[in-house]
Automatic annotation (TrEMBL):
Domain AMP-dependent synthetase/ligase: 95-481
Lyase is among the record's keywords: no
Protein name as it appears in the record: Acetyl-coenzyme A synthetase
Keyword list, A-Z: Acetylation, ATP-binding, Ligase, Magnesium, Metal-binding, Nucleotide-binding
Amino-acid positions noted as binding Mg(2+) in the UniProt annotation, renumbered to this chain: V549, H551, V554
Domain AMP-binding enzyme C-terminal: 543-624
Post-translational modification: Acetylated. Deacetylation by the SIR2-homolog deacetylase activates the enzyme.
The reaction(s) this protein catalyses: acetate + ATP + CoA = acetyl-CoA + AMP + diphosphate
A biological process from GO: acetyl-CoA biosynthetic process from acetate
Binding positions (ATP): G398, E399, P400, D422, T423, W424, W425, Q426, T427, D512, R527, R538
Cofactor dependence: Mg(2+)
Annotated positions of the N6-acetyllysine modification: K624
Length: 659
């Protein structure tokens, strides 16, 4: 919780945008920002009406902007109709931008494939026609389990074209996680690849699909469409599995977009909450698309000629909004990258920026921190060894960026010329919420600065009362916004309880602790719930705990986060075995087994970095695990709290020992 606040103390310089940048900006200067903000304040619905009319192509115009009658189940532009894929593709072709490059795909091995808007539209239509021919239609649900590829974007856009609700599962998730999602969304089709390339290695993907589909409650899945990426032998289920190229064989490259209601779900994306089961965050069509497009334009100051690159995988919300939808809706040229930042060496990102003349680069603090380390060790991979002169704007997303990393990024990548947009948002918010505007906002390293126009962010106490600047509290959004989560798929109660608990006066509760400084700037302090942020990925402590206790050796487990210099937070697991407490090599061996187990249950990102064994866990007399204490112990700090309420204070000593 304390890292960002410490950062206020160590870095208090302010970096205003340069004048030339301001002059040419989409939102030119603080007065322009304030005017837009005020427009939304003075005439909330009028503001959103104007944005939705100016930015989206409607097949049937909406009359009502916001329907709050079922709050917190808000409806935006509810009687309007449109198609998301039409707005991302056809629009540009019809307006004469068909020959512009939409995607520059760079494979793990460096092979580059450009695709124009016209060609992308053709590919989306062919695939959509394949889906149609196979009997899929509006309202069906599809699981997409693909590597970063043109095909991933095609699959998502083709679903959007037909009104098939997609749920993308990150390729790093296990067969078990995949199975849970297939069942929860009630998927009738799975779109996958035989394998993927990462860091020069071919890794299989299809076996996880086969394993997931061999489990119960998956009978609804009629087809598995397999994109051939790595080649080699693949287990095949006749009648169910079909190669991508056979699936779209002979299909026309024209496909009428299906008319969708604004509120029809576009996708479901699972994210971790404070219980064991991930939540299916349900997003809408029109409101989501509007915000994806608007935030690309505002936050990244995008104009014709920009080359945009968001490094996030399409398995995360960042890859949905800032790869699959936003940049296309805004008509940009964007880089899509299959590989990893460290292959063939840690200069890969900088090399690609130079080769593709990237103007806008958006990545996560974890990546920056690991590249700082690598370039300290080897000047050849330092950004100075590459041509980064094309860059105009650089961005950060997913976790707090510590001021040291911020300043390094600003100096070495942005050459003290490019503004950094440190964007705060969440899977649930659909798009960026609190972020600098590159041509307006004076930057403070470590702060995500100010809310976007139309976003009414505030810090409140546990009764929903505003707290004064300088005081910590809960981050809330006081008014709904078009891209907000619509529901937790299949669990309306969970939606209400998680995001609109009664004490908070109907505000959206983000789950982050934060504070504002005297300039009203927001400083995010970290999650207030049992959610961890490891390398910018959200993980529930309960999720990892339930994975651990499902192992036959484990009696009990408690998981906490510990600050980590590279990954932001690291997973620390305190484990009680059903047998006696292990020591030495045996403890190491069991810890390894448990790590592999968690990777198999959830995915490698959830593997505990540190496992500690005890005869018991520190509990109160009523049996509650004292996580607060465990967090202190995990950090290796002295326990100074009163432990007199502990049932078994001696246990703490054992838990200070890492395996
Ligand atoms: C959580 C949301 C943002 C999309 C990708 C992650 C943390 C996100 C920032 C930031 C400080 C941040 C918050 C938030 N977070 N961006 N710029 N500064 N913290 O989406 O997986 O839904 O995670 O990530 O704690 O609640 P997500």
């Amino acid at each position: 919780m304390s890292t960002s606040i410490e950062s206020v103390l160590v870095e208090n310089r302010v970096f205003p945008p340069n004048e030339e940048f301001v002059r040419n900006a989409v939102i030119p200067g603080m007065d322009a920002y304030k005017a837009l903000y005020k427009e939304a304040e003075d005439d909330f619905e009028g503001f959103w009406r104007r944005q939705a009319n100016e930015h989206l192509r409607w097949t049937r115009p909406f009359t009502q902007v916001l329907d709050s009658s079922g709050a917190p189940f808000y409806k935006w532009f509810a009687d309007g109709e449109l198609n998301v894929s039409y707005n991302c593709l056809d629009k540009h072709v019809e307006e004469g931008r068909g020959d512009q490059t939409a995607i520059i795909f760079e494979a793990d091995d460096g092979a580059v494939t450009p695709v124009t808007y016209k060609a992308l539209l053709g590919r989306v239509c062919r695939f959509a026609n394949g889906l149609k021919a196979a009997g899929y239609k509006k309202g069906d649900t599809a699981i997409i389990y693909l590597p970063m590829s043109i095909e991933a974007v095609v699959a998502m856009q083709a679903c959007a074209r037909l009104g098939i609700i997609h749920s993308v599962v990150f390729g790093g998730f296990s067969a078990k996680s995949l199975h849970e999602r297939i069942v929860d969304v009630g998927a009738s089709v799975v779109i996958t690849a035989d394998g993927q390339y990462r860091g020069g290695k071919a890794l299989p993907l299809k076996p996880a699909v086969d394993e997931a589909l061999s489990q119960s409650n998956t009978e609804k899945v009629r087809s598995v469409i397999v994109y051939r990426r790595t080649g080699g032998d693949t287990h095949w289920v006749d009648g169910r599995d079909i190669w991508w190229e056979d699936f779209e064989q002979g299909q026309s490259d024209e496909c009428e977009p299906v008319v969708m209601n604004s509120e029809d779900p576009l996708f479901i994306l699972y994210t971790s909450g404070s219980t064991g089961k991930p939540k299916g965050v349900q997003h809408s069509s029109a409101g989501y698309l509007l915000w994806a497009m608007l935030t690309v334009k505002w936050t990244f100051d995008q104009k014709p000629g920009d080359v945009f690159w968001c490094t996030a995988d399409v398995g995360w919300i960042t890859g949905h909004t800032y790869v699959a939808y936003g940049p296309l809706a805004a008509g940009l040229t964007q880089v899509v990258f299959e590989g990893v930042p460290t292959y063939p060496n840690a200069g890969r990102f900088w090399d690609m920026i130079g080769r593709h003349k990237v103007t806008t680069f958006y990545t996560a603090p974890t990546a920056i921190r690991s590249l700082i380390k690598a370039s300290d060790a080897d000047a050849k991979v330092h950004p100075d060894s590459f041509d980064l002169s094309s860059l105009r704007i650089i961005g950060s997303v997913g976790e707090p960026i510590n001021p040291e990393a911020w300043v390094w990024y600003y100096k070495n990548v942005g050459k003290e010329r490019c503004p950094i947009v440190d964007t705060w948002w969440q899977t649930e918010t659909g798009g960026q919420m609190i972020t600098p505007l590159p041509g307006a906002t004076p930057l403070k390293p470590g702060s995500c600065t100010l809310p976007l126009p139309g976003i009414f962010a505030a810090i409140v106490d546990e009764t929903g009362e505003d707290v004064p600047n300088g005081k910590g509290g809960f981050l809330v959004i006081k008014k709904p916004w078009p891209a907000m989560i619509r529901n937790v798929w299949g669990d309306s109660e969970r939606y209400k309880n998680s995001y609109f608990p009664a004490e908070y006066r109907g505000y959206y509760l983000a789950g982050d602790g934060a504070q504002r400084d005297n300039d009203g700037y927001f400083w995010i302090m970290g999650r207030i719930d049992d959610v961890l942020n490891v390398s910018g990925h959200r993980l529930g402590t309960m999720e990892v705990e339930s994975a651990l206790v499902s192992h036959e050796l484990v009696a009990e487990a408690a998981v906490v986060g510990r600050p980590d210099a590279t990954t932001g937070e690291a997973v620390v697991a305190f484990v009680v075995l059903k047998r006696d407490r292990p020591h030495g090599d045996e403890a190491k061996e069991i810890a390894k087994q448990l790590r592999d187990w968690v990777a198999k249950e959830i995915g490698p990102i959830a593997k505990p970095k540190d496992i500690r064994f005890g005869d018991n866990l520190p509990k109160t007399r009523s049996g509650k695990i004292m996580r607060r204490l465990l967090r202190v112990v995990a950090k290796g700090e002295e326990v100074t709290q009163d432990v007199s309420t502990l049932e078994n204070p001696a246990i703490l000593e054992q838990l200070t020992e890492s395996v």
